[in-house]
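Q: A reviewer asked whether we had any structural model of the full assembly, not just the individual parts. We don't, so I'm hoping you can provide one. Inputs are below.
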Amino acid sequence: MFFFKAFLFSSFLFGIYSKSIQNSTNEEQDSTFLRNEVKFLKERLDNLTEIVEKGTKNRQKSVLYFVRLSSKTTLNINSIVKYDKVITDEGGNFNPGDGIFVCPVTGIYLFSWTVFTASSKIVDTELRVDNVIIDSMYVYIGTSSHVPATKVVLCQVKKGDHVWIQTSAHTTENVFETPTASRSSFTGMLVHEN
Ligand SMILES: *[C@@H]1O[C@H](CO)[C@@H](O)[C@H](O)[C@H]1NC(C)=O
Ligand SMILES: *[C@@H]1O[C@H](CO)[C@@H](O)[C@H](O)[C@H]1NC(C)=O
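A: Here is a predicted structure for the entire assembly that you could use as a starting point for your response.
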């Protein structure tokens, strides 16, 4: 009887003991798991922070301009059109003094120019990149009053290249008109660096 009681008692003690071991083992496992999880999340967060910071630093510079010719202008052959009214010029790469855009980064650019001329007059222009003719536009509207003409161009431009609109070698009297508020204009923007 005594042994039986002792056995029961020790079984009881053993029960409590093993349970508490199990308990503390569970807690240890839990806290180890949580510690690893926090470590993983912290590393993940550090990695993401690094990616975001790098992305912000390397974000492509904005390069774009829109300029207009503020008054009626008549140009002879081979004359650069000096767009004098800057509406916007992010990056400050267009010079209204000489009408030339200086390319700040190598990439694909979009250029577009719009011309107004007068009845029976002609405007014959070229888009030149580093003095190479990329596209040209011959505008003659006959006896119509004022019809705009526009060209849109996509091309590769190297850093430092000069880009401008000039009259051709053939037409001696290019009349840029200013019907009411309408003006001839020239625009360009960086599509992407490469
Ligand atoms: C831990 O042990 C106590 C006492 O034996 C018990 O009441 C409790 O339910 C146990 N907890 C867990 C999470 O096992
Ligand atoms: C964090 O970045 C390193 C290096 O790229 C990589 O080895 C590790 O697995 C990344 N950690 C996490 C949690 O994404």
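A: Points you may want to mention in the reply: Residues 19, 23, 26 surround 2-acetamido-2-deoxy-beta-D-glucopyranose (ligand 1) (CB under 6 Å). The chain has a mean pLDDT of 89.
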